């Protein structure tokens, strides 16, 4: 009997799907006919029935194990007397039929939320009823309303949570200050973005003698959320459910009610606030000589922005510095300790690639006005290094105390990714490579050695793609990218639940107690996922032949489940944010159909190239069929598409000119058409083949001395384009070569 494999259905917009296996093995392909009776996200058992030419498994669904309650969002349509909802998420491959009396108050064309009343079958579509009307597709903020439901992001606090938040005080009370260090006279300040509303962290630095040498005392004060959010309370239950705040253009869905996130917990200027402090002594070489944690009460002496601090550090006699003259000396101390920490970062070989992040600027109606790069200045880096130092201390403190907790773990590249990166570096002629057990310094060394090359962006992108994804787990195996033996998240408890757990653990250690995770009334998805993972570990072929490994203790399992939950919800938040950004970019580009732009290739695949437009930072696909009338082959080692006849190559970093040809709002896709293949690319390819590209050409690609005559002949329809002429030359050369071989 063939093994039955359990997993979750992942639909595809083209009608087929996959079973994502619980045991972590490769996905099982399901053809369209197998997807008729199942839905995206269904849990199933499947059997592998065959393998394709490349050895990839194809399966058949034998049982639907679980059909989670999942609302479907889409537009209500009325076609041929039948009401139906076309799902906005195309991974649901079937329209949902809506009986006549189940449309509620919805009107044709509106975006609605549907609750299924009948599942799909081999011979019937799913049936549902309209549960909620979201509004018209072009309503301001509709993209966010869709995304929070599409990805299951909790966006409404429970009544119990809101009630408990209202009962909390508006300010720090005298009894709240007991057993806390009074730091109100220390000039701690916050440094954040212009649009920040919640302030997690405040910093202060002063010169200090460390051992026999000079150094600094660095204080990082973090909002003490754990003082107000008790374990197992209504606020805690909602915060755990969300696990993180979700950031969209013009809107934030916070992890905590606004009274806490923007008020009582936020380190607002010139008010008393409760905090947890990491007090560090740092040497001139950036080593953390000593640290201590303690609860305190503080007073923020100023609210700085990154732009303002960068301006002060650049010119300590400028207008910004004059306005903040009382704090300039403190900022200089912070900058000095930052430079020392940066030395230590470079010494341990931490990975530090410069990437371009973008920010969408919208008008009052939610329409994109422009997309701009986020510029990281010295102030950003200063705060980042201070936070890294506090996070390292918190990880070390938990580890030294042998108390369970959540670490932020980033493992090195997988064997497959290592091989891909090695082959790529060899193919493009980079003399450096990575060892079998690479260190972060090896990646940084390659980045430094190639930063002046014209294809530096391409190389750095490949280095980044070879990295693993960071997760939360109680089993510490270090942070590869930052080159730390132990690392955790301590500095953002207002917006990240793992940080709140770390605060609780540190407080328990300070009080010589033990923190225990709350017992949830129902196991939850993360606990079920953990149980399946543990079962799959036991049922591996290797373990069937020997004694299975002992299961982790219940305590470790609880922490592992919490880590899975927080990691999954972090990814969920990222996916929802990306979905909204993609929607906004598609709406933006609909207004630019037919327009031409310069851009750079940011990815090459077997089906085409992805191009990011200059200045606009919008990515779209040039399908392989739009690359010209020849056969293109994908070179995995070089990560490029190469034309077999001409040798023209499209790799990451290649500059092209494209036209916006199609925008699919539902699919969040933008298609480009190559305006011209790029004479310089083709000329280089021809040169590689030993073929002359003809006379010198002007900017338009035609011979410089005969552009008028050529244009006239082209209008008459009797002339080849420059590209066609070059291709003809290649064909002619190939023909001559073939004749010579025949004669021999």
Please tell me about this protein's structure.
With 744 residues, this protein is of the alpha+beta class. Among the domains are: 5-66, Beta Barrel (OB fold (Dihydrolipoamide Acetyltransferase, E2P)); 179-400, no CATH class; 586-743, Nucleic acid-binding proteins (OB fold (Dihydrolipoamide Acetyltransferase, E2P)), CATH 2.40.50.140. It is built from 18 helices and 31 strands. The longest helix is centred in the C-terminal third of the chain and has 37 residues, at 554-590.
Secondary structure elements and pairings:
Elements lengths: L4 E7 L5 E5 L6 E3 L12 E9 L5 E10 L5 E8 L2 E6 L8 E3 L12 E8 L8 E9 L6 H9 L8 H9 L13 E2 L6 E4 L8 E10 L2 E11 L10 H9 L3 E3 L2 E3 L4 H7 L7 E12 L4 E12 L2 E4 H9 L4 H5 L4 H21 L8 E6 L5 E7 L3 H23 L6 E3 L5 H13 L12 H11 L5 H10 L5 E3 L23 H14 L13 H15 L2 H4 L9 H37 L5 E10 L2 E6 L5 E5 L8 E4 L4 E4 L5 E3 L3 E10 L4 E8 L2 H10 L18 H10 L5 H22 L1
Parallel strand pairs: 11-18, 12-19
Antiparallel strand pairs: 1-2, 1-4, 2-3, 4-5, 6-7, 6-9, 7-8, 9-10, 13-14, 14-17, 15-16, 17-18, 20-21, 22-23, 24-25, 24-30, 25-26, 27-28, 28-29, 30-31
Helix pairs in contact: 1-15, 2-3, 7-8, 9-11, 13-15, 16-18
Strand % is: 25-35%
Tally the helices: 18
Shape summary: globular
Spatially, the strands of the biggest sheet line up as 3-2-1-4-5
Provide mean pLDDT, rounded.
Answer: 86
Q: Spans of 5+ residues with little confidence (pLDDT < 50)?
A: 537-545, 693-723, 736-744
The N- to C-terminal Cα distance equals: 61 Å
Please compute the radius of gyration using only Cα atoms: 30 Å
What is the subunit arrangement here? single chain
Classification by helices and strands: alpha+beta
Biggest sheet details: 5 strands, antiparallel
How much helicity do the residues have?
A: 25-40%
Number of strands: 31
